[in-house]
Design goal:
Blueprint (H helix, E strand, L loop, with lengths): L7 E10 L2 E11 L4 E5 L6 H9 L7 E9 L2 E2 L5 H7 L4 E4 L3 H4 L6 H8 L4 H14 L5 H6 L7 H13 L5 E5 L7 H18 L2 E6 L2 H7 L2 E6 L2 E7 H6 L4 H8 L50 E4 L2 E3 L5
Parallel strand pairs: 3-8, 3-9, 6-7, 7-8
Antiparallel strand pairs: 1-2, 1-4, 4-5, 9-10, 10-12, 11-12
Helix pairs in contact: 4-5, 4-7, 5-7, 7-8
């Protein structure tokens, strides 16, 4: 990690729905120019964490504890008017479905200019440059088009342009390549990686795909049932995963060396519902290395090597 002040710090964040804690005491930080991947199965709390950072949680979900810092500023309890000034400027987000997030009746140019809080007539040169930066050809023509006239990959590039034109300190990308084919997915990941480095933007990438993580992330936080199971440099986690859940996630990635038509590795069982959480490790009911203490005690996230932490009694 860089020695610069972190662009984003999340400390001891807990989120609850009624009595059920759905995100439990998680924390991480991201440096300028760094890509941190939050990875895990659907329902593990990744997107809720992103919404908490953006201060866009649904009314049914409350922040029970924790602090969120954007640079040196604590934004945990800022008034909504102040957050509106921060969102889109210092803190931006790319959503999963670009064609759903973009206004179908408004031109591409006007939607990107809106992120600058300027009319298109004033912002047109900046919008044109931004479209070129995200790899959209013939930007003058695209500025006047509507989202339905563009492909899914181009709409995703427009979303990235909207998110980055104001040069935010932090960008949250929530499953940004889910609906794209493999070739376009690789292009979008390369684009995010390049722009993060060039603009020194801290990126929090939300994904369930370990293949995506391998392509872009500097560091990884593996989440399971609302807790961080393992975190560390991406290279270390891929080379020597410490948590059984991380190892099983990596084993489930298809490889070119696999025997044709051979069965894919799977993680037996299912993620527990919040109402089913017990006092121990939440992965215990699926873990091949489970021990008696795993169901009675909660493992703490502890360092095993430089920058590499794991919450597992067997690690």
């Amino acid at each position: 990690m860089s020695n610069a002040q972190p662009a984003l710090v999340v400390e001891n964040l807990s989120l609850a729905i009624g009595p059920a804690v759905v995100v439990d005491n998680i924390g991480f930080e991201v440096a300028p120019g760094e890509v941190l991947a939050l990875v895990g199965e659907s329902g593990c709390g990744k997107s809720l964490t992103a919404q908490a950072i953006m201060r866009l949680l649904p009314p049914a979900i409350r922040q029970q504890a924790g602090r969120i810092r954007l640079g040196a500023e604590d934004i945990t309890a800022l008034p909504e008017r102040r957050m509106q000034a921060i969102r889109g400027r210092r803190l931006s987000m790319i959503f999963q479905e670009p064609q759903a997030a973009l206004d179908p009746l408004t031109s591409i140019g006007s939607q990107i200019a809106e992120a600058l809080r300027q009319p298109l007539a004033e912002a047109r040169p900046a919008v044109r440059r931004m479209l070129e930066e995200v790899g959209i050809s013939d930007p003058d023509r695209r500025i006047a088009q509507r989202p339905f006239e563009l492909s899914g990959g181009m709409c995703q590039r427009v979303m990235i342009a909207c998110a980055l034109i104001s040069r935010p300190a932090v960008l949250i990308a929530d499953e940004p390549t889910t609906a794209l084919d493999v070739t376009i997915q690789a292009q979008i990941l390369d684009l995010l990686r390049r722009l993060a480095i060039e603009r020194q933007t801290a990126v929090v990438l939300i994904t369930h795909d370990m293949g995506v993580v391998a392509d872009i992330a500097d560091r990884v936080c593996v989440m399971y049932a609302g807790r961080i199971a393992e975190s560390g440099p991406a290279a270390d986690i891929f080379a020597a995963p410490l948590h059984p859940y991380t190892a099983l996630l990596l084993a489930s990635i298809p490889r070119l060396s696999d025997v044709p038509k051979s069965a894919l590795a799977v993680i037996e069982g299912r993620v527990p519902q919040p109402s089913e959480y017990g006092p121990g490790c939440r992965f215990a009911n699926r873990c091949p290395r489970v021990m008696p203490r795993c169901t009675a005690e909660t493992p703490k996230l502890e360092a095993r090597a430089a920058g590499h932490q794991v919450a597992c009694f067997a690690a």
